[in-house]
Amino acid sequence: MDMVDRRSFLKAVGSAGLLSALPETAFAADGRGVVHEVAEPGQDAAARPKYSVRFAVAGMSHDHIYGMVGAMLRGGGELVSVYAAEPERGAEFVKRFPQAKQAASVEEILNDPSIQLVLSSAVPSERAPIGIRAMQHGKDFLSDKPGVTTLEQLAEVRRVQAETKRIYGIMYSERLEVRAAVKAGELVQAGAIGRVIQTINIAPHLIQYPNQPPRPEWFWDPARNGGILTDIGSHQVDQFLFYTGSKKVEVVASQVGNVNHPQHPKFQDFGNVMLQGDRGVGYVRVDWFTPDGLGVWGDGRLFLLGTEGYIELRKYVDIVGRKGGNHLFVVDGKQTRYIDCGQVELPFGPQFISDIVNRTETGQSQTQTLLAAELVLKAQERASLLHFSA
């Protein structure tokens, strides 16, 4: 169709009629159609549980702890004990995991020589101090994100980690515990779209879950949660580092703002970041504006631009009809593919447990983990404040 005919066609059908006028296959390059696939689990024997370590929970102010515990149990971990600063959270936890003995304090867990690994989803500003003490007690540590909330905390984490040689992990679950993200990593490593030169992450979040208690006070206070970029932005920067392979990165620009929550004047409900790496560039947008009508906590989307194709992830929902999450689209020089990633296995748990036993970094690079934390802390510190007129 030449340009004259194309313009005539578009003018005739109008934008509203165009979608209904075209067959489904017209949305694929050259009309060749979209290849639909269901991804195989894809987990080799090396990623299955081969080891067991005893672990405990020291602080659980956020429900992310359940996903963290689940990953360690899948990896072969043995849950020993739990400490919760909030008694109601501790009671609920032991109902779900009756094998966990309730500890009276963090110290009780740290002083137990049989415990090799400590997990924590304490108030974000308290996680690094717990992790530092865990490493000093000869234990490895896995924090909920954000794993640190100040650059001063980060410097101390790095110092103690280098001194003790313990693992300071951070559960960046939007990559490590999302099946489509795992599959995207496999495709990128296999060269499916060439070299990744840009990532775009769009990460909206639901501010209040239906029929759930209101958010705790620390949620509204950047001094305790680190701010929107430090908190939920850390997921996205981790993905930028992982998919581009960048080792040296600068924060080009960042913004934060409280657009619609004047009742919480310190709160930040919107933020974005631009990154320049030695192997690619990245853009991140995070917000607390998921509408109630979506039905899930956020329509998280990731775009990977490669030199020979691109990948798009619809991680948690497809708003036009496919059930569930973990939808992956890949376009290369030959075809357009849709991949249902719902059966892809999650390797992080077994890999992390193996790393504890073998002192390796198969589940998570220590350098990359803390670099992601550093970048969001710098982005948060340097962010310009958004002010919109009424």
Descriptive keywords:
single chain, 390 residues, alpha/beta, Rossmann fold, ten-stranded mixed sheet, 13 helices, disordered N terminus
Give the SSE layout.
Elements: H1 3-21, E1 34-38, E2 54-60, H2 64-74, E3 78-83, H3 87-96, E4 101-102, H4 106-110, E5 117-121, H5 124-136, E6 140-144, H6 151-164, E7 168-171, H7 173-176, H8 179-189, E8 196-204, H9 222-225, H10 228-231, H11 233-244, E9 249-257, E10 270-277, E11 281-287, E12 301-306, E13 309-314, E14 327-331, E15 336-340, H12 348-358, H13 366-382, E16 384-385
Parallel strand pairs: 1-15, 2-3, 2-5, 3-4, 5-6, 6-7, 8-11, 9-16
Antiparallel strand pairs: 8-12, 9-10, 10-11, 12-13, 13-14, 14-15
Helix pairs in contact: 2-12, 5-6, 11-13
Give a nutshell description of this structure.
Helix content is 35%, strand content 23%.
Describe this entry's structure for a reader.
The protein has helices at 3-21, 64-74, 87-96, 106-110, 124-136, 151-164, 173-176, 179-189, 222-225, 228-231, 233-244, 348-358, 366-382; strands at residues 34-38, 54-60, 78-83, 101-102, 117-121, 140-144, 168-171, 196-204, 249-257, 270-277, 281-287, 301-306, 309-314, 327-331, 336-340, 384-385. Helix 2 (64-74) crosses helix 12 and helix 5 (124-136) packs parallel to helix 6 (151-164). Among the domains are: 3-32, no CATH class; 48-171, 3-Layer(aba) Sandwich (Rossmann fold), CATH 3.40.50. The chain is globular, with a radius of gyration of 22 Å. The protein is an alpha/beta fold. Strand 14 and strand 15 (336-340) form a beta hairpin. The strands form two sheets. It has a ten-stranded mixed β-sheet with strand order 1-15-14-13-12-8-11-10-9-16, covered by helices on one side. A six-stranded parallel β-sheet has the order 4-3-2-5-6-7, with helices on both faces.
